[in-house]
């Protein structure tokens, strides 16, 4: 049975039925291409009937990818200017990436040092009232502390109330004021003394109450101790001590810089010219809490409640504050660099618009829309920003790695920065290219062609 032919309902369907010369109805066009061509023809016919100008078909130079390609070719033709402009963006991105990388790396290094300090130092202190009453630790009490599980080194120390005059001659030809500390060898081990000449006095010197001393290298240099050959002496307020060692002050212990260390006799005798004695303890990592609970009983069991125990407080908030302050400062500088780079890109694009007025006018005259002209300049500045972002990211990562290796820090770097650098560069390029693109799109083609 023959299929009944359906009557056309629309203009497009009507074009699918073309009557031949003999008056018969032609077959319905077959295939997607035929139907699409018929639909376009019907649309063009309706537009012509209404007096409308059909929209110009998108050419390669007007489509988005075509605009991007033309922008790329334009930059290739001005390679030197492109690279010089991209350098500004690259420096800003490098500063940003290096800032974030170095902030994270240095914060990790600070955290590691703070955590080690917090977990390994305990100080048990006598009060001045206890000193005035004649109470002080003994050598046996510090020995008991060293026997506590988790204690690495411990010893008694105390500081002179006032600096003393030091001289290398009995006649005191040259004097220098120096702080003086009474200290056990165990305390020097706990502080981490490093000796550049000679060595520390030992427990035998302390037990015999020998008049020996060690001196910081800066004070030794100032007083003229070139070496310890011949057994030099040092005079503190006229009192004679045999100098047996020259040390380098431990890192982070500024009070020991330029000081002279003598045996702890003033500490255990509650000498009024010295501050109240303290027992400084270096523990294993994480053992400070337990040691802090036990050490006072070992130091002075008769008056545990009268002692004060000090271990570094929680420094996490301080560490976070340091990290935030440093990052804010460096990011501010990086932001200034990015603004300078953006201004450079915008200025270059604006100059390019002025130089290419004839080209822009010609493109407008042959049918390029304002949007197409504007998009080309936005693409050019975006590509410059992207190039600068790529090279800036590489430069920033290398700066971070170099500084970290030089400072012996463990590199901490967020992988997202590898993608963020080019993206930031492209965004900066887009922002910088908006105004020049708008200026280019507003250029009248007729005026430009006459010029």
3D architecture notes:
By secondary structure, this protein is of the alpha+beta class. Strands 1, 2, 3, 4, 5, 6, 7, 8, 9, 10, 11 and 12 form a 12-stranded mixed sheet that branches. The protein is elongated, with a radius of gyration of 42 Å. About 5% of the residues have low confidence.
What's the arrangement of secondary structure elements?
Layout: H1 11-15, H2 32-49, H3 64-77, H4 79-120, E1 121-125, H5 128-132, H6 139-146, E2 151-159, E3 164-167, E4 176-178, E5 180-183, H7 185-191, E6 194-198, H8 203-208, E7 212-216, H9 217-223, E8 233-236, E9 239-248, E10 260-262, H10 265-268, E11 278-283, H11 288-299, E12 308-310, H12 316-355, H13 357-365, H14 370-406, H15 416-441, H16 445-450
Parallel strand pairs: 5-10, 7-9
Antiparallel strand pairs: 1-11, 1-12, 2-5, 2-11, 3-4, 3-8, 6-9, 7-10, 8-9
Helix pairs in contact: 3-14, 4-12, 4-14, 4-15, 6-11, 12-14, 12-15, 14-15
